[in-house]
């Protein structure tokens, strides 16, 4: 595989440098001291990605190209507001311009369609996202289909997901369109920590559009054997025990227990849930993986500080790469 798994990069199992620089074994802290898993530090990896992007954005600006991320937010969902604000803070860190279109929760389908068309034709918008969830009664798939696929910052447009399956443009084995951010971030995390993918068995818990389904496609393209489990899977724990790599994206705090995980397996925790802690009277963020798994796994991504920062960094990377393609 060529450097990274982004647009234009060959998606195969050939050896090659990861898009995020490998982490020196000497710099790999453990989750909780001797006997625990190596901590896959998404915060540090994301910082390295952003540092690289700042250089690339400066080079684009020197050529008169200014990357811009657009966001369409409908309503005032607290989580969505926080998410969108964070995206624009990330943009400021690397020099990407921000273009926001905020609509009230009473916005009609026609008004949302108009906002999408505005982003499609605005030359200042290199790529954009439609923040989900949309108000009840608005079909999110229909809205995503209205986007210009070349401006799809999340990599979730049906055309781009189809490209992940077919990978026709650019020659055999290549992908020339944006990759979904969380799956792309997960692959870069695995590569940075020298976790083999080709030929390995990966069990994914959760079949959501943003993680499970596209990640299964991407890992299959990287010649892993991917098993996608969900709420109707008869024995999820048994499927997890077979895995060299486990990706937990179910949104159920503490779901994955130590006896589910094969000794030495790599575990990527995507879930994030606010859990009330009676002892402190406060809420705490918890992942899908029980903390005790760190005593069994070979490597584990924490929550927070694991997949989240890398997902955000991959969104920025998609924007910069879109600008570079058009430069």
Classification by helices and strands: alpha/beta
Structure summary, number of beta strands: 13
The share of residues in extended strands comes to 15-25%
Number of helices: 9
Distance between the termini: 24 Å
For the largest sheet, list the strands in their spatial order.
Answer: 2-13-10-9-7-8
State the CATH architecture of the domain at 179-308.
3-Layer(aba) Sandwich
Overview of this protein structure:
- The structure is a single chain.
- The chain has helices at about 40-60, 80-95, 110-120, 140-145, 160-165, 180-190, 210-220, 235-240, 305-325, and strands spanning about 10, 40, 70-75, 95-105, 125-130, 175, 200-205, 225-230, 245-250, 265-270, 275, 280-285, 300.
- About 45% of the residues are buried.
- Residues about 1-15 have low confidence and may be disordered.
- Among the domains are: about 65-155, 3-Layer(aba) Sandwich (Rossmann fold), CATH 3.40.50; about 180-310, NAD(P)-binding Rossmann-like Domain (Rossmann fold, 3-Layer(aba) Sandwich).
- Helices cover about 35% and strands about 15% of the residues.
- The chain is α/β, with parallel strands linked by helices and about 325 residues long.
- It is built from 9 helices and 13 strands.
Characteristics of this structure?
about 325 residues, alpha/beta, Rossmann fold, six-stranded parallel sheet, three-stranded parallel sheet, 9 helices, 13 strands, about 35% helix, disordered N terminus
């Amino acid at each position: 595989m060529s450097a990274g798994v982004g647009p234009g990069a060959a998606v195969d199992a050939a050896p090659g440098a990861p898009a995020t620089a490998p982490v020196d074994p000497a710099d790999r802290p453990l989750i909780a001291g001797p006997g625990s898993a190596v901590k896959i530090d998404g915060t540090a990896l994301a910082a390295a990605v952003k540092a690289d992007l700042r250089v690339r954005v400066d080079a684009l600006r020197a050529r008169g190209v200014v990357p811009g991320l657009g966001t369409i937010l409908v309503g005032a969902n607290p989580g969505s507001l926080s998410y969108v604000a964070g995206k624009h803070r990330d943009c400021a860190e690397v020099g990407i311009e921000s273009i926001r279109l905020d609509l009230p929760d009473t916005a009609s389908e026609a008004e949302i369609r108009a906002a999408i068309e505005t982003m499609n034709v605005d030359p200042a918008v290199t790529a954009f996202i439609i923040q989900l969830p949309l108000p009840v009664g608005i079909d999110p798939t229909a809205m995503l289909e209205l986007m210009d696929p070349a401006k799809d910052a999340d990599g979730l447009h049906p055309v781009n997901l189809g490209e992940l399956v077919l990978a026709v443009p650019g020659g055999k084995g290549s992908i020339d369109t944006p990759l979904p951010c969380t799956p792309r971030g997960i692959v870069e995390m695995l590569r940075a920590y020298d976790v083999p993918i080709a030929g390995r068995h990966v069990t994914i818990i959760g079949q959501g559009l943003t993680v499970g389904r596209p990640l299964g496609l991407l890992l299959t393209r990287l010649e892993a054997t991917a098993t996608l489990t969900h709420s109707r899977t008869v024995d999820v724990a048994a499927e997890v025990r077979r895995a060299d790599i486990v990706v937990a994206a179910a949104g159920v705090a503490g779901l994955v227990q130590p006896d589910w995980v094969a000794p030495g397996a790599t575990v990527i925790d995507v879930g994030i849930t606010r859990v009330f802690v009676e002892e402190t009277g406060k809420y705490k963020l918890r992942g899908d993986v029980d903390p005790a798994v760190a005593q069994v796994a070979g490597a584990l991504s924490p929550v927070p500080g694991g997949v989240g920062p890398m997902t955000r960094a991959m969104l920025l990377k998609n924007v910069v790469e879109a600008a570079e393609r058009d430069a």
